Amino acid sequence: MSYEAxxxxxxxSELKTNTKIFCGCATSFGAEQNTHVCPVCLGLPGVLPVxxxxxxxxxxxxxxxxxxxxxxxxxxxxxxxxxPDLPKNFQTSQFDLPIAEHxxxxxxxxxxxxRIRVTRIHMEEDAGKLVHSGxxxxxxxxxNVDYNRTGVPLIEIVSEPDMHTAAEARAYMEKVKSILExxxxxNCKMEEGNLRADVNVSLRPVGTEKLGTKAEMxxxxxxxMVESAIEYEIDRQEEILDDGGHIAQETRxxxxxxxxxVSMRSKEQAQDYRYMPEPDLVPIIxxxxxxxxxxxxxxxLPDARRARxxxxxxxSEYDAGIITNSRAMAEYFDDVVAAKVDxxxxxxxxxxxLAKNLNAESKTIESSPVSADNLAKMIALIEKGTISSKIxxxxxxxxxxxxxxxxxxxEEKGLVQITDSNAIEKIVDTVLAENPKPVEDYKGGNAKxxxxxxxxxxxxxxxxxxxxxxxxxxxxxxxx
Length: 480
Prior knowledge:
- Belongs to the GatB/GatE family. GatB subfamily.
- The protein is built from 15 helices and 16 strands.
- It is α+β, with helices and mostly antiparallel strands.
- It has 3 domains: 288 residues, no CATH class; 114 residues, no CATH class; 58 residues, Arc Repressor Mutant, subunit A (Orthogonal Bundle), CATH 1.10.10.
- It has a 9-stranded mixed sheet with strand order 2-6-7-10-1-11-12-13-14. A 3-stranded antiparallel sheet has the order 5-4-15, with no helix packed on it.
- A hairpin with a 2-residue loop joins strand 6 and strand 7.
- The longest helix is centred in the middle third of the chain and has 20 residues.
- 37% of the residues are buried.
């Protein structure tokens, strides 16, 4: 039987605030365990929470950027459950009146655009971090708890089950990450847990509407992990159904080392969290005027920026999509083309040599040794004909090592392109004299052999000869 996967994501994003959601403890990552704590975030008796205004502002910005309706009346609730990383035995979250609802995100997969609906966005506090003795909770003999993360502000972005492939789920999460980075409400450092997802996967026979029994995978904190876990889970459920079995409703965890999902706990029935309104926090009232002001102050978002790069600079949809996928890369590109250099050439260098070097050294574009200003200067040298594209690669490598001004590198290394026709002609004559076989092949109708001769001229000139002049002189002499 053929099955269709039905996939929904709950994305948890830590907000970029200096202090926690209900107290003044620091949110910075990497501190010694259990040092960023106080009576409020530890849930000690007799304490009262106070909402961090910045959290509400960031949540509203996220809602607007994800095309949601902002609820003018919103409130906090207590979500009651017991787990070691939750010292109060309840999580302060939002239930029936979240800050934002009914949004959407447009994604592109295999050249097709698809709209993924966003059910809701709500604010909540993060729980602590369990530090297991093994690789996962299943193979651990014990666990410790670090409460530094308790009370760090989160927004949870809940999608409708509109995705049907792992690629769609990855594209959706990548798009949400990009938008949150653009509006600067989250660091989105997945390796630090700033952005992670709970993924729900179920299967149903193709052509039917009834949803199958879902399995939930918790705390996936990389795009590759999300994609791999979904692909594995689809295969696992399909095999069970084909064998006549039934899917258990359960929570599973991803074992990255083994490349499999592992059962954590059964969810035979919907868990009753016994939600109740949080009595210690006042409701959040947001006026139409405030919402309009937030909307007016949103920055240019990825889709709008992508369209601008296509219209303003003539980039292809693909190139513009790559450039605008990251806010940092888009701003780097804008800084380069602000120097009035060719935009397509700038895009090629950014997506090519720059991206390759960044990936090789696991650097972000923010920490690039080659500044946007120096890359623009190097591209200008190419456009003026001072250096060739081949020489430019040598210049770029030098800049990568030292971020030196490219004009200085060209001068010190003697890399100025040879454009003098007389000087190049002498090299061409030497190459023709030393390579009679390719010359004979060309005259016999093998036009491709001229490529070998061009390469020999460039080799003899140490890459300095102007390729255009080389090609012109060779053709003139060969066609006589």
